[in-house]
Amino acid sequence: MHLVLVPDDHVYTLLDLPAATRSEFWEVLEWATTEYGLDDYGVGVRNGDPQSTAGTIAHVHAHLLAPNGRQALRMKFGTGSGSTSGT
After folding, report:
1. pLDDT of residue 81
2. What is the mean pLDDT of each run of 10 residues along the chain (87 residues)?
3. Which pLDDT belongs to residue 40?
4. Does domain 2-65 have CATH number 3.30.428.10?
5. pLDDT, tens digit, for every residue of 18-33?
6. Which pLDDT does position 86 carry in this prediction?
7. For residue 4, how many other CB atoms are within 10 A of its CB?
8. Measured between alpha carbons, how far is 31 from 67 in angstroms, rounded to an integer?
9. Which of 2, 6, 22, 47 is most exposed by smallest CB count within 10 Å?
10. How many angstroms separate the CA atoms of 25 and 5, rounded?
């Protein structure tokens, strides 16, 4: 499973979100894990300029990923070639 959580506020980082929106963001994450019965999951967020973080979208968002039951969930962030797969 792969869900993308996108706040309405257009900012670069989670910490740039207004306090109420940050709180709502975590509430939505809690809702999603409960709604889909996720006990095991990963959350991936790149913060900042996409050119520096190897991202493609200049708007903070989070990827909520859950293992598919056949293999372990792998999320990689790094600076090497191909090291950003999984998000």
Report:
1. 53
2. 90 92 94 94 85 79 87 72 46
3. 92
4. yes
5. 999 999 999 999 999 9
6. 45
7. 12
8. 18
9. 2
10. 8
The pLDDT assigned to 78 comes to 63
From the list 59, 60, 62, 87, the residue with the least C-alpha distance to 73 is: 87
| 42, 33 contact by CB (below 8 A) | no
Alpha carbons within 13 angstroms on the beta-carbon side of residue 73 total 17
Print the SS3 string covering the chain: CEEEECCCCCCCCHHHCCHHHHHHHHHHHHHHHHHCCCCCCEEEECCCCHHHHCCCCCCCCEEEECCCCCCCCCCCCCCCCCCCCCC
| Per-residue tokens: 33 | 């894990």
**Radius of gyration of the chain measured on its C-alpha atoms:** 14
pLDDT given for residue 41 in this prediction: 93
d(CA 48, CA 37): 31
